[in-house]
Amino acid sequence: MVSYKELGLVNTREMFAKAVKGGYAIPAFNFNTMEQMQAIVQAAVETKSPVIMQVSKGARKYANPTILRYMAQGAVEYAKELGCANPQIVLHLDHGDSFETCKSCIDSGFSSVMIDGSSKPYEENIALTKQVVEYAHKYDVTVEAELGVLAGVEDEVAAEESHYTKPEEVIDFSTRTGCDSLAISIGTSHGAYKFKPEQCTRNAEGKLIPPPLAFDVLHAIEEKLPGFPIVLHGSSSVPQDEVDTINKFGGKLPDAVGIPEEQLREAAKSAVCKINIDSDSRLAMTAAIRQHFAEHPDHFDPRQYLTPARDNMKKMYIHKIVNVLGSNDKL
Ligand SMILES: [Zn+2]
Known about the structure:
Blueprint: H1 13-22, E1 26-30, H2 34-47, E2 51-55, H3 57-63, H4 65-81, E3 89-96, H5 99-108, E4 112-115, H6 122-138, E5 142-147, H7 170-177, E6 181-184, E7 201-202, E8 208-209, H8 215-224, E9 230-232, H9 240-248, H10 261-268, E10 272-277, H11 279-295, H12 302-325
Parallel strand pairs: 1-2, 1-10, 2-3, 3-4, 4-5, 5-6, 6-9, 9-10
Antiparallel strand pairs: 7-8
Helix pairs in contact: 2-4, 2-12, 3-4, 5-6, 9-11, 11-12
């Protein structure tokens, strides 16, 4: 058993309370590689922002859970080396799918876990979430739960009301589970193809404009649970310049579309205090690497193409922190 406190990590409790009060959101960036980790830490230190580094099931499989845990420990030390005396870094499990996965993360030094029972019937979601909360709270680890189903790109009825979180359920759910934060579904979606073209409109240049987030549902939830930390998943904006660079240098991502940043900024001012961004980092990395290979066909040292990739991710992280989430200067 390793406590996250020995690693210099923090849980989300205090940072969420401050974010809700302050009208900003904490960035939750997924990572699987050293370059992503370095870019996240550099961006957080330079902007004096708290940050959540999160690990998905796929990341655990790709990188190995033990390595990721040591990377998070390294992130804290790296932040100090970069001049941040008291870094606020959370190591969070994204979409934990069972009690066992959450327990193994808690036991190995994670400071926060998500238990995602959203695909289960309501009562089963409550029972599973409660079980994780009881274990996690013994070690002062915070728990994110999910209520409502986030549409993926495959889902034919992505925009239907029934997928949204039901505001009338949130009080019962949060009280009975004891969860520390709640991921809700108000129209965000996972991946780089969040909406099908037929769900969108097109602007004069033919670019897709996605349907707006359901702010009425968000406000109804806030009314039921004043001040309770709300989380948005699937909140990459899929920046058009990165998509254009990828397509210009041999990639093929037609009609990739995300959540407009103005809407995320709007959400961050409310009880939304954690915004998950994964795809945008993948796009920034891929765009820089594709461009580098096109311009330097003779290069084969990974450091040659991973350096601009890391720089481009860092630029994107800083932009999100300062211009979208507003978590800069909050340490
Ligand atoms: Zn998610």
